[in-house]
Write a structure and sequence with these properties.
The structure holds two protein chains of two kinds.
Chain A: H1 2-16, H2 23-46, H3 54-70, H4 75-97, H5 102-122, E1 132-133, E2 139-140, E3 144-145, H6 149-171, H7 174-184, H8 186-191, H9 196-222, E4 224-225, H10 232-245, H11 252-269, H12 276-290, H13 294-306
Antiparallel strand pairs in A: 1-4, 2-3
Chain B: E1 8-19, E2 22-28, E3 31-33, E4 37-41, H1 48-55, E5 63-68, E6 71-72, H2 78-84, E7 86-88, H3 101-110, H4 130-139, H5 155-168, E8 173-177, H6 185-198, E9 203-207, H7 211-217, E10 220-225, E11 228-233, H8 235-240, H9 242-265
Parallel strand pairs in B: 4-9, 4-10, 7-8, 8-9
Antiparallel strand pairs in B: 1-2, 1-3, 1-5, 5-6, 10-11
Helix pairs in contact in B: 3-4, 3-5, 4-5, 5-6
Classes of the chains: A mainly alpha, B alpha/beta.
Chain lengths: 307, 266
């Protein structure tokens, strides 16, 4: 019940936020929040550290961008195709990666993501370093024009809520229970008859699909699909967002994404712009050293100890 | 003396596991009779846990065969072996520490429901398993801890929970790896009573160091030494074998004998 109240409060906040803040900025936060939540499904609830999630974000972005420029599909269809492309890529990567554990899993995902990066760098349809520019937002269902930033924001909010709901549901589903058991004690789950790799694989595919959904949506928001989204920096950034917000908490990655995106936005505009990577590195170090459970994890601890 | 045809639930034929330059399990022919509590004993490094890992396919045998109910299961994956009804425990208590005690048992019950890949449904549909899970917890005396987070249980209770979880998948054959290891006196009694209780209607193969427990529970004992079978038989036979005394039991067996004599005397 308490959770319900918090969620309603946050929803109300999200609905009125554009009256105070710039809608494109808010939409950007939501896209990264969804990306981080998708990543966290894998790290926080399956215990798998992927270092290649940029591949899915970028694939969603490029596929949706390409379709919007060249095919005349309506945006919701272009987003769906982008998401499916990410899921497909995730299905292939997942098959290869879940056979390995720990650092090897991370390395396999990184290596595969680098392949994807160089593919997009070389492939003619991505325009290489320039990226796909001037991607039209189109009209939702052919009816609602998305070129207005406020309309776009509410469309992004709807997608975010759907994605967030699905992640929440996955965590609290029969599948999520098995996933948690595997994270807690993989050998025991095996000895109870679970083919643990199949469960990890499905989690990987869901996570990849939602990361691609975030990428697809982001391309429409910025009318741009670029190499930044497939670069390994992006795979690192999403780890940072998730850690800062709180690994394994449902809402943590949203807060973490908000924090990092806000910081980047303010710093890149000001005098400190040149130091942005140093500052982010420092945040990372402080986070890992002194509050490992992240903002939300820390708040939950505080609540447990004091109430 | 002719023996009646015996019913073996599990058999190994020339089971061998060689690591680089070292044969951990050497040509082992193990026969586990249905309904028995069968103990696997031997000094440290004799290959007991390796045998367990081979039987459940956590390790690949170098050569040899494993037969379960007469079927060759040597090529199966670990999870497939578990689904056949061979369920193992581990040396270190195998629980899911940050799930509740009830959830631990429910995970085991859940698999047969066939909804374990359903990520779009609410976990509330699992609540229909709660009654069955609580009944299993009652059978090991943990019904009062259903909502406790497992990590907060005492060691003995964790092992009891592990047994309840194993029972939930209705195993035909339970493999227990040192079920009383690292336990205080009271917990040892509790767990060995529990093993006796659950051994009805099923077969148990256990690795055990505690000879009091072995002498009390085991119908049949196999002694391993340096990866090979030294001897087999019931407790009296095995403990009387001078090679066993020399290799392993020595003083420990004498102590049990002494204690038994004292019990008789008093």
């Amino acid at each position: 019940m308490n959770n319900m109240k918090i969620n309603l409060f946050l929803l109300a906040l999200a609905l009125i936020a554009p009256t105070v803040l710039y809608p494109v900025f808010l939409a950007k936060v939501l896209c990264f929040a969804l990306f981080a939540c998708a990543f966290n499904l894998l790290l926080g609830f399956a215990g798998l550290l992927s270092f290649g999630h940029a591949a899915f974000l970028g694939t969603g972005g490029y596929v949706t961008g390409y379709l919007m420029v060249n095919s005349g599909l309506t945006p919701e269809l272009a987003i769906i195709v982008g998401t499916l492309a990410g899921a497909l890529l995730g299905a292939v990567f997942g098959k290869l990666a879940v056979k390995r554990e720990g650092i090897y899993f991370a390395m396999v995902t990184l290596a595969l993501a680098q392949l994807v990066f160089f593919f997009y760098l070389q492939a003619p349809f991505t325009n290489g370093e320039d990226g796909l520019q001037g991607v039209p937002r189109g009209a939702l269902f052919g009816l609602i024009d998305l070129s207005d930033n406020l309309v776009m924001y509410y469309f992004v909010l709807t997608i975010f809520i759907a994605g967030y709901w699905l992640i929440n549901r996955t965590v609290h589903s029969p599948f999520g229970q098995v996933l948690k058991a595997i994270r807690e004690n993989e050998d025991r789950a095996t000895s109870l008859g679970y083919d643990v790799n199949q469960y990890k694989w499905l989690a990987f595919v869901i996570s990849a699909a939602l990361a691609a959904l975030a990428g697809s949506t982001k391309t429409l928001v910025f009318e741009l699909a670029s190499l930044t989204d497939v670069h390994w920096h992006m795979s690192g950034e999403v780890i940072l967002m998730t850690l800062v917000g709180g690994v394994g908490t449902i809402f943590g990655p949203v807060l973490g994404a908000g924090f990092i995106v806000t910081m980047q936005n303010y710093l890149s505009g000001g005098e400190l712009g040149n130091y942005i990577h140093i500052i982010m590195g420092a945040v990372f170090v402080v986070c890992v050293l002194s509050f490992r459970s992240g903002i939300v994890g820390q708040l939950m601890k505080f609540k447990r100890n004091n109430f | 003396m002719t023996q009646p045809a015996q019913d073996f639930i599990l058999e190994t034929q020339n089971l061998t596991k060689a690591f680089k330059g070292f044969t951990a399990v050497d040509d082992v022919n193990l026969k586990i009779q249905r309904g028995h509590i069968h103990a696997l004993i031997g000094p440290n490094g004799a290959g007991k846990t390796t045998v367990f890992n081979l039987l459940t396919k956590f390790l690949q045998p170098t050569s040899g065969k494993i037969l379960f109910n007469g079927d060759d299961i040597t090529a199966l994956e670990p999870a497939a072996i578990a689904r056949k009804g061979v369920i193992r425990s581990f040396q270190i208590s195998a629980v899911f520490p940050h799930l509740s005690v009830l959830e631990n048992v429910r995970i085991a019950l859940q698999r047969k429901e066939g909804n374990s890949f359903h990520f779009w449904r609410s976990e509330k549909i699992l609540n229909r398993l709660n009654e069955q899970a609580v009944a299993l917890l009652e059978s090991v005396g943990l019904e009062g801890f259903a909502n406790t987070t497992t990590v907060d249980l005492s060691y003995g209770r964790k092992r009891a929970l592990e047994i309840a979880t194993t029972l939930a998948v209705e195993p035909e054959l339970m493999l227990l790896d040192e079920p009383t290891q690292g336990m205080g006196h009271e917990d040892v009694g509790l767990v060995s009573d529990l093993i006796k209780k659950v051994s009805k209607d099923r077969t148990i193969l256990m690795v055990e160091h505690n000879l009091h427990v072995v002498s009390k529970l085991a119908d049949q004992i196999t002694v391993l030494q340096r990866g090979a079978i030294l001897t087999e038989g019931d407790y009296a036979t095995v403990s009387a074998d001078p090679r066993v005394r020399e290799a392993y039991m020595g003083t420990a067996a004498d102590e049990v004998e002494q204690e038994k004599n004292e019990e008789v005397a008093s």
